[in-house]
Design a protein that fits this description.
single chain, alpha/beta, four-stranded mixed beta sheet, globular, binds acetyl coenzyme *A
Length: about 325
């Protein structure tokens, strides 16, 4: 018997307010042409009154409804985020509180920036395969607009707010790539790049969250290589070649990074999911948001092979191979 974690529910939630590149050109020295050609971003959603927990709750509710389960069946809630409502308790605890989760539901946050969802999914999958839990809710939720310096054109045009979620549940498989569920995961980090992508503050250093700072060119180069490496590794681990892949869901940071990764993996553009054009970079939310939207649109179907690959501050990176 081989335990797999199967995705039985998916959800996403975006704040209502949509901000265009032309809107941004009114507050910083930029223009639609620069943002579109350098990043592929056209619009992004930004929070007004809502908190990161509201976005997470919206995505979680949809995922639980899609799964057709009751909240009481969830053993663990993990939220990947760098923009929690409170420093403590975790955002996962807040979501559990809003969902009225039963006493005993394990809750914790993952801080691995844009790789956070893949990190959280990997941990939850491992707990399921060890038999410690049966059902997990894994969420990526961010209000990046709260840690963006709205006077800095180098960064403020890149980010957006939103949330995505999945419910995964233990299911018996054969141990082959014909199984549905998570087939392989792999995580990496290299802290030598600690300074290259970070916030300028934090609880202990400045008592403020700080603003996002990055060495854009270094991040760009590293992202192309690490996203490709993680995708290749999980495909190899699962015995899947790129021609068998139905969908690549890369972290949505920049269309040029996404296209380069697709080319490196020799995947036709129509198999590469793009959401950065209407979400911007939503960090830990970007992959589950793109997944849920594309399941709902009917593009991603039951049985499809999906490769997720993410990279973010730390540097952290990682991938997941899934048969939906
Ligand atoms: N509007 C107009 N001009 C701008 C803007 C803007 N919003 N931002 C920067 N510029 C200017 C710069 O000031 C620079 O001007 P200069 O030559 O007079 O100094 C010029 O445009 C070119 O800037 P570059 O940094 O060379 O532009 P580049 O082609 O490298 O693109 C970008 C910058 C989009 C940030 C790119 O490096 C990138 O995408 N890097 C990846 C970073 C990323 O996505 N980070 C997100 C978090 S990490 C992650 O999610 C993986």
């Amino acid at each position: 018997m081989h335990i797999r974690s199967e995705i039985i529910g998916w959800g996403h939630y975006l704040p209502k307010k949509v901000v265009t590149n032309d809107d941004l050109a009114k507050i910083v020295d930029t223009n639609d042409e620069w943002i579109s050609t350098r990043t592929g971003i056209k619009t992004r959603h930004l929070v007004e009154e809502e908190l990161t927990s509201d976005l997470a709750y919206g995505a979680a509710k949809m995922a639980i409804e899609k799964a057709g389960i009751s909240v009481d069946e969830i053993d663990s809630i993990v939220v990947a985020t760098v923009t929690p409502d409170n420093t403590t308790p975790s955002l996962a605890a807040k979501v559990a509180n809003k969902l009225n989760a039963k006493s005993g539901t394990v809750t914790y946050d993952i801080s691995a920036a844009c790789s956070g969802f893949v990190y959280g999914l990997t941990q939850a999958d491992n707990m399921i395969r060890l038999g410690q839990i049966k059902t997990a809710l894994v969420i990526g939720s961010e209000s990046l607009s709260k840690i963006v310096d709205w006077t800095d054109r180098n960064t403020c045009v890149l980010f957006g707010d939103g949330a995505g979620a999945v419910v995964i549940r233990a299911k018996e498989g054969e141990g082959t790539s014909a199984d549905t569920g998570i087939l392989a995961t792999k995580l990496y980090a290299d802290a030598a790049h600690y300074e290259s992508l970070k916030t300028t503050g934090g609880v202990a250093s400045t008592k403020t969250a700080g603003f996002i700072f990055m060495d854009g060119k270094e991040v760009f180069k590293f992202a192309v290589n690490s996203l490709s490496q993680a995708a290749e590794t999980v495909m190899q681990m699962g015995g899947i070649s790129s021609k068998d892949v139905d969908w690549l869901i890369p972290h949505q940071a920049n269309i040029r990074i996404i296209s380069n990764v697709g080319e490196k993996l020799e995947l036709p553009t129509e198999k590469v999911i793009v959401a950065v054009d209407h979400h911007g970079n939503t960090s830990a939310a970007s992959i589950p948001l793109a997944l849920s939207e594309n399941i709902e649109s009917g593009k991603i179907k039951k049985g499809d092979i999906i490769v997720m690959t993410a990279m973010g501050a730390g540097f952290t990176w990682g991938g997941a191979l899934i048969r939906f």
